[in-house]
Amino acid sequence: MHELSVCQALIIQVQEIAKQHDALAVKLIKLQIGPLSGVEASLLENAFPLASAGTVAENAVLYIDRLPVRVRCQQCGAETEAAANRLICGQCGDYHTQLISGDEMLLASVELTKES
Amino acid sequence: MCNTCGCNITPGNKHFAYKPVEGGTTAVSVLKNLLAKNDDQAVHNRQHFDSHGVLAINLMSSPGSGKTALLEATIDALKHEFRIAVIEGDLETENDADRIRAKGVPAIQITTGSACHLDAHMVHDALHSLPLEGLDILFIENVGNLVCPASFDLGQHRNITLLSVTEGDDKPAKYPVMFRAADAIVLTKTDLLSVLDDFDPQRAERFVRELASNAPMMHLSARKQIGLDVWFDWLRQELHAQRDRVNQGKTARPKIQPEGVQLHVSTV
Ligand SMILES: Nc1nc2c(ncn2[C@@H]2O[C@H](COP(=O)(O)OP(=O)(O)OP(=O)(O)O)[C@@H](O)[C@H]2O)c(=O)[nH]1
Ligand SMILES: [Zn+2]
Ligand SMILES: [Zn+2]
Ligand SMILES: [Zn+2]
Ligand SMILES: [Zn+2]
After folding, report:
1. I want to staple A4 with a disulfide (CB 3.0 to 4.6 A). Which of A25, A47, B51, B101 is the partner?
2. Is any ligand 1 atom within 6 A of the Cβ of residue B67?
3. Residue numbers of the domain that contains A18
């Protein structure tokens, strides 16, 4: 399981942001995770209390925005939703598609406070 | 439980994401990859490889798919043509590195303990104890695991995913993240195809194409020395391309990684 190491990397980034803004605590951490990112959102949630313990993010709420898999067809141009293991065009069925959403593993935003 | 399809963003919790910020609170928009630190280190590693003109190739597969066996066969055939070195990742033991050293090629073993993948920092530590000077190809054998290694950029130029014919031809559909990450796919242990009646290479390839991947698929047996020439030619071509890039001051990342953040940052 690498969700703990991903979560530790997250906490390091959040700590740096909090420091830059002279914040005493982090209230909310918002992530965007897609099914093709290779990390499981629910496992990140489980790892979060462990990784955040004793840091400025200790009492933060972790909110994970789960993004859908979407592809753009290079044949017909349609943008459709797809299953993570079937990235074919929902319109014409071609597999020459480009992923436009679904592999995100992003720290989207944080909310900081000067009160601890 | 449905964790990945987005259906647990319900009308009930959706407002939470857009909750107005209270007084005394600062909202900071970030939009950075969670593995940004690893990715920065990977960029640094890639600079090391490029400044020495080395082609770095990351091999990924389930445990026992034949990564080390393929490397052994490759070294036997090409060690007079190219200077090769190997970084070996394993949970425990120096066995794989010993097998490579027995072929007369430098090998560094990284034992990850409980980590199920290599990351860019581990590879950096290892590469500074390798003679990059005069090296042509550096192979990085990742930890046997079809999940985690796909998420970590190590600074390699190309990803190879191996699939042995004893694993089942539906692995690409079951592990889409890993197979999407492959610049080329190597079907291994094809000498066993005749005794396995349920592995259909065409079906395996169809699952790969359904991941919108046009990665070449090479069929080979390291044990019986079947189909290795296609793999060797692929390596020669890649090394050639790497030298051209280096001469032009360019680099390459595995095909999966360039889009990422830029392509689809949705509005927060
Ligand atoms: N029949 C057959 N067996 C093979 C072939 N290649 C590898 N094997 C066998 O498969 C087993 C695993 O091979 P390795 O090369 O150690 O596999 P690996 O992917 O390096 O394994 P880990 O590093 O533990 O993940 C060994 O018993 C090999 O002898 C092949 O082409 N044909
Ligand atoms: Zn893992
Ligand atoms: Zn289409
Ligand atoms: Zn091995
Ligand atoms: Zn360095």
Report:
1. A47
2. yes
3. 1-68+102-113
